[in-house]
Structure formats: C-alpha cells, structure tokens
Amino acid sequence: MNILTQWFPNVANRLPEFIDSFVQTVIMVAVTGVISFILATLIAVTLTLTEPAGLKPNAVVFNIVDKLINLFRSIPFIILAAALVPVTRALVGTAIGTKGAIFPLIIGITPFFSRQIQSALAGVDVGLVEAAESMGMSVTKIVYRVYLREAIPSIIRVSVIAIVSLVGLTAIVGIVGGGGLGDFAIRYGYQRYMLDATYATVIVLVVFIGIIEFIGRQLVEITEH
Amino acid sequence: MPNVNENTAPVAVAIRELKKVYRSDGEEKVALHDVSLDIAEGDIYGIIGLSGAGKSTLVRCINGLERYDGGSLTVHGREIANLRGNDLRALRRKIGMIFQSFNLMPSRTVAGNVELALLDSVNSKSERKHEVEKLLELVGLADKADAYPSELSGGQKQRVAIARALANKPDILLSDEATSALDPNTTKSILKLLRNLHDTLGLTIIVITHQMSVIKQICNKVAVIDHGTIVEEGHVFDIFANPKAALTQSFVATTSNLGKIHDLLDEHSPLVQLEPGQVLLRMKYISKEVSEALVSHISRTFGIDVNIIFGDIDVIDNAPLGGLVVILDGAADRITAAVDYLKDRNIGIEVLAQ
C-alpha cells in the first residue's frame, strides 16, 4: 500500500473505482471475446467453404461476406463506435457503460477476428481435406473433424492476437462512454492531468496482455503435435 | 504375380473417352482427352506419365474428387458422374486412396487417424478400437498406435495411410505417387506391402507414378499418359520388351543400362575394341518364353566364344526381361549360324559393331 500511495496517489485515492474499471475491462473482453469468437468462426468457415476452391463454392455468398468484412474493417473503430450509438441504444437500451460497449466492440472486432481465423483455416493442408473427402466424409464433418480440429493451434494463436486488439478497442470505447480502464485513464490521467492514473492503467494492461499471451502459448504447446 | 485371367476377371473400372477441361479466366486447358481404359478386378494397374500429364486428375475422377466433362467412367458398373451426396460418399468408402504426402491428420495419433475413417461406418467405439488394432497389425505398426504422425518416418506414415485407406474394406485402392517421397529401400518395402495386400485381400490397385521402376516392381498392366491422352497401354512385360511410343521408350530406358553401350562406343572404350572376326551384339529378351541357358548353349553348339561386356536382366511377370551386350569371337559362318539360332529363339539381336 505504501508504494501505491507514494507513486500512484491518485489511484490509491480511487482504488475501488480503479479496480471496478479493471473488472469492467475484463468483462468487456471476456463477453465480446466469446461472442465474436463464435461469430468469427462461423464467418471464417463460411468463407472457407464458399471460396472458389472451397468444398461448397458459392460466389454470391462468398463475395457478400467478403465485401462486408472489408467494409467494416475500413471504418476506424472510434467512428464506428460513435456511428453505432443509435443502433446500440435500440438493441440493448443504452449506449453507455459496459452494457452499451459490448455491441460496438463485437461489430468492431468480429471482422478482424474472422480474417484471422480464415487465415488459420487456410493453413490447413488441402491434402488433409482431400484425404477426408476420399474417406467419404461429409462436408459438415470435414469442417469440425479436419478444418477446425487441425487448425486449433493456429486458431489459438490468432485468437490471442484478436483479444489483444480487443483490449485496445475496450480502451477506445472508454471515450464514447464505455467504462473500463480506458475510461479511467482518459477521465483522470488525460483530462485531469493525473499522470500516475495513466501509468497505472498502462502497467495493469501490460500485465493483463502478458497473462493472455502466456495462456495462449501454453495452450498452443498442449494442442500442437 | 498372380495370374489374372483377363478374359474372365470382371472389369472394376471402365473408362471411355473421358474428358476433363479446366477453365480459368475464360481460358480452357484440356487435362484429359479421349482417355479409355479397362481395369480388371485384381489388376495392379500402373498409370505413368510426366508431371502435369493428367494422371492425378484421372485417378481423382475415379473416386469423384474431380468431375469430368465428357465420356464415361464406371466403377463396378456405376457411372460416377451420376452419383451425388450419400451415394458418392458410400462409394468413396469402398475406394481407398493413399497420397504422396501421406495426408495424415497431425492432431491425431496413429490409431486416431485410422479410426477417423471408421467414425461414420462403425458405430461402436470398442468395435472401432478392435478394427484399428487389426489394421495396424496388417501394416506392421501395432506398436505405434499412440504415436503422433510427426514422430514417424516417411515409410511408417505411408503404412498408417494404407491402414486408414483399407479401414472400410475397399476393393479398389488408388495410390497417387505414394512412394515418390520415399527413399529407394522404403519404396521397396511399401511396394512389397501393397503387393501382399493385393494377394491376400484381392485388392485392385491403381498406381499413379512417374517412376518406371515402380511399375516394374508391382504392376501387371500399365498405361502411359502424355498431355492428357493415353499413348500406350498393355501388359507390363510387353511394354518393357517392346515400347512403341517415344515417351514409353524413354521411360523404359530409365530402368535399364543397356543404352550405356552407345556411350562406350562413342568413347572408344577399350572394352569394346574389336579384333578381326569379333562381333559386338546386343541381345534382348523380348518374349516370355526364354528360359534356356542361351549363352553356354550357343558357345557349345557353335564353337564360339561369348564374352559378356555387361548385362541387365530383370524378372517381370515371372519372365526374364532385359538383355546382354556380348562380343562373339569365332569363324564368321559359325557366328552367323549362332545369330540365326538366337533370332529363331525370339531374341532381339542388334549388331553394334563388327
């Protein structure tokens, strides 16, 4: 406590709020992470199957999904978050706080996440898919028995990348009223010149991301043969 | 080589005027053109060609991994082009396939890879386990059941792939360059395994390769494919003894060193310097009915010396194939009589120098 009061007096004075902000960040990352992981996996599988050389080529579906991803990825997140305020309000009743932040976060991260998982699936050797086909396996079964299963280590790797980006986005939603550590750092560190609040946020985020990357590496190690 | 009576063995795969065209960016590339073949049950049928000749496309048409654009391809009388969905998948289970790059699932153990092929056909887990054990026994890898593919050598990986391909008891096995990534000794052991499986399970095997030595070691029939067309086909012995197309001749030449004599002659090697009265001959076995002691026979009967410079004789289909390069030394009329005798015995004679 001594070091905290000595080096981070403004954080020490607002410790419950600081911890609260951290918890909000973790919740935003966790909830958005899980939902966007599921969505991104579905989108990546759709792209992989419908691409011209895929198992179910479909130019219409492929092009629509592909272009939509490009469209959303080309909008800077801070503008996207602001533009989504009315939609968010209509959907969840509020556009502020953790609850209001999750929807724009999902829209912001899913296109990037989808591209990441798509590239992980593209890394699955076409020979493995061909072998599965030659065994008489159906396309649905090839998706989870071959594509998803064989891509697990790569999917973990790209998920870590996406989650780290997501932590960055949660800080940005702080600006449009999203809460979390980003909000804390902006309100105290930036707007009230309490530099120690900014530094404390940086340290906590660095450690947080370090832990995510550590867990990711361990999981890759376990799943890779 | 088991004796396949081609007059009675039913046709396993019948291909008629098969055509396959790849289209990209408005450009058409003909991959297969007017390909017709009959592969009988029990054949080990080789399809040889250079890379890009269309042999992989052809073999992929057999199990419907590739769709063809014209002609007909039937497996046990069923037209592949008419099969869809479940019917096609059921057929694929009865056609095993092995690949150059093995294509084992890295995330699954050896047993897991074999079991994968059984997931949709055998419901009981204990029954699957039992089947997997039997299959691994069959390919000699029972002790590697829990290893991952990354821990295996190339030959072991191909054995696992063979066990997986045989899991659903297919009667046809497609081998797409299965030994091309293996060293010569491993290649031999894999080919021996395929031969044993053919003999014991009555498999029809279709072997895609660019190596004539593979054809020589296990096939009874062969088709040579070039630019999407079959340029020559027939029994392996006949093709080796009498290759007609230029491509076939060049393939056959890769398996024999009898062509080396021309290098020796060009280099004026002391080995082939003839004295007056000597004749340099190349004798080639071109018929299956050669089993007598030819060299000692002509030497004794015609009173001439036969000096063997080099030889390359192999056994294909239980008949000697290849030939000898020899120098005959003796009276001119005795040599002529000996040469006539050899010609009568269906030995291909080529006088290289005299």
TrEMBL record, chain A:
GO terms for biological process: D-methionine transmembrane transport. Its main location: membrane. It is a multi-pass membrane protein. InterPro entries: AA_ABC_Transporter_Permease (IPR051322), MetI-like (IPR000515), MetI-like_sf (IPR035906). CDD domains: TM_PBP2 (cd06261). One of its GO terms (cellular component) is plasma membrane. The chain crosses the membrane at residues 22-47, 68-85, 91-113, 155-177, 197-216. Keywords: Cell membrane, Membrane, Transmembrane, Transmembrane helix, Transport. It is found in: Cell membrane. Residues 22-216 form the ABC transmembrane type-1 domain. PANTHER family: ABC TRANSPORTER PERMEASE, D-METHIONINE TRANSPORT SYSTEM PERMEASE PROTEIN METI-RELATED. Belongs to the binding-protein-dependent transport system permease family. This is ABC transporter permease. It comes from Bifidobacterium merycicum.
From TrEMBL, chain B:
This is D-methionine ABC transporter, ATP-binding protein. Transmembrane segments: none annotated. Belongs to the ABC transporter superfamily. GO terms for molecular function: ATP binding; ATP hydrolysis activity. The lineage of its organism: Bacteria, Bacillati, Actinomycetota, Actinomycetes, Bifidobacteriales. GO terms for cellular component: plasma membrane. CDD domains: ABC_MetN_methionine_transporter. PANTHER family: AMINO ACID IMPORT ATP-BINDING PROTEIN, METHIONINE IMPORT ATP-BINDING PROTEIN METN.
